[in-house]
Amino acid sequence: MAETEKKEKKAAPAAKPAKKAAAKKSTAKSAAKAKTDKKVRVTLVRGLVGTRESHRATVRGLGLRRINHTVELEDTPAVRGMINKVAYLVKCEA
């Protein structure tokens, strides 16, 4: 009798729930994109020789490579913090 119970349990596979979370993700991405439309232009105006290693890493994190190199970044609190850290090396335009 135990063998027939095992066969019955194996014969009935568990039903998988339908995925509805994918539709929610696409709307969250479009909402986040609409919030970050503002841009800020950052230009490296001084050289990195003689600066702290963490400041050099911050400048590279901003995407700046050489003097007078300009990049356009999204205006987020993280980017603003990086700009404030190396404010003596860069010029910022809103």
Order of helices and strands: HHEHEHE
Please give the number of β-strands: 3
Assign the CATH superfamily of the domain at 36-94: Ribosomal protein L30/L7
Average pLDDT score: 83
Helical region count?
4
Care to give the gist of this entry?
This protein is α+β, with helices and mostly antiparallel strands and 94 residues long. It is 46% helix and 16% strand.
Describe the 3D structure.
The protein is an alpha+beta fold and 94 residues long. It has a domain at 36-94: Ribosomal protein L30/L7 (Ribosomal Protein L30, Chain: A, 2-Layer Sandwich). Helices cover 46% and strands 16% of the residues. It contains 4 helices and 3 strands, in the order H-H-E-H-E-H-E. It has helices spanning 2-11, 21-35, 53-61, 77-85; strands at 39-44, 70-74, 90-93. A 3-stranded antiparallel β-sheet has the order 2-1-3, with no helix packed on it. The protein starts with a helix and ends with a strand.
Search tags:
94 residues; alpha+beta; Ribosomal Protein L30, Chain: A; three-stranded antiparallel β-sheet; 3 strands
List the helices and strands and how they pair.
Blueprint: H1 2-11, H2 21-35, E1 39-44, H3 53-61, E2 70-74, H4 77-85, E3 90-93
Antiparallel strand pairs: 1-2, 1-3
